Amino acid sequence: MEYVKKYKIAAVQLDSGSDKMENLRAAEKYLDEAAGQGARLVCFPEDMNLVGKNTGKGGNAEEIPGMTAEFLRRKAREYGIYVHGGSFRKVIPGDSRCYNTSVLIRPDGEIAGEYHKIHTFDVTLPDGTVSRESKQIRPGEQVVTVDTELGCLGFAVCYDVRFPELFRAMALRGAQVIFVPANFTDATGKDHWEVLLRSRAIENGCYIVAPDQCGRKPAYQAHGNTMVIDPWGTVTARAAREPGVIYGEIDLEFLEEVRGRIPSLANCREDIFPEMRRARQSCRREGGGVSV
User: Fold this and answer.
1) Given 146, 159, 168, 281, which residue has the most CB atoms within 10 angstroms?
2) Which neighbouring-strand residues pair with 2?
3) For residue 269, how far is the Cα from the chain centroid?
4) What number of other Cβ atoms are within 10 A of residue 70's Cβ?
5) Where are the alpha helices (DSSP H) in 205-292?
6) Fold exhibited by the domain 6-286
7) Pick the catalytic residue: 20, 43, 46, 114?
8) Distance (Å, rounded) from C-alpha 213 to C-alpha 242?
């Protein structure tokens, strides 16, 4: 596929709350703004349509297609752009849990790819506090990359950023731009958010686009600091602590230059790490970046 070499990307920072319709109205306002500024792709944070239990219309978890996916499809068609829906909760028939799901919408409004967050935050702290995200969220089981005219795009959500093997698998499948929509807490974000994101970009010579939630949530302060990071690890765009849109440039020629200077993907010891060989072979069999 022939790629567009340079284009503008927009990352939206939201302060989503417990009214789904209000959250979608905010998302629409920022998407309209980004499209007006010439963004070819607009992306949103984790839990973009709802944080907490919905107090308004639209329910909680949804089917796909459903209300939120149809909103994203309509806006993509309206402006003829790609829209990455951050993440929202998808109903799983027969399961009380749901998937934490990202969708990528093409300019014609069709769904190009769907990713279910693989890693759930399950922990027992030294003081005995127990957190089991997997009680509400069913972990996904598939690495997803999608080949588009804007490059090969990869998908992660929030806690996934702490698992570098996921990002390496996507890069070996051809990913050039990887999305990390998040609802990161300030308690960990102040020390880990930027470090983790820049590391994933540097390790894989790829762009990282990380839209985050901001504002006070029911149980924590969200970190904000939405970022676009280039393959050298430079933060090229950063939000503060308020809702809004930031813009970055994706330059695939610069990406190839960086990968030529630091050939960590080419130098990977696949004889020592057979799982990396399997990831690369999977990419070759399937013809590059595809939804898998």
Assistant:
1) 146
2) none
3) 28
4) 13
5) 252-261, 274-286
6) Nitrilase/N-carbamoyl-D-aminoacid amidohydrolase (3.60.110)
7) 46
8) 9
The per-residue pLDDT string of the chain (292 residues; one tens digit each, 9 = 90 and over) reads 889 999 999 999 999 999 999 999 999 999 999 999 999 999 999 999 999 999 999 999 999 999 999 999 999 999 999 999 999 999 999 999 999 999 999 999 999 999 999 999 998 878 887 888 999 999 999 999 999 999 999 999 999 999 999 999 999 999 999 999 999 999 999 999 999 999 999 999 999 999 999 999 999 999 999 999 999 999 999 999 999 999 999 999 999 999 999 999 999 888 888 777 777 666 544 444 433 2
Tokens of 190: 């102040």
In angstroms, what CA-CA distances link 5 with 2, 26, 196, 250, 253?
A: 9, 31, 26, 8, 6
Please give the Cα distance from 62 to 107 (Å, whole number).
22
Does the active-site annotation cover 158?
A: yes
Q: What letter would DSSP give residue 146? A: E
From the list 117, 152, 217, 283, the catalytic residue is 117
Annotated catalytic residue, options 43, 98, 152, 158:
158
The answer to pTM > 0.85 is: yes
Distance between CA atoms of residues 121 and 179, nearest Å: 19
Instruction: Tell how strand 145-148 and strand 151-155 pair up.
Output: antiparallel
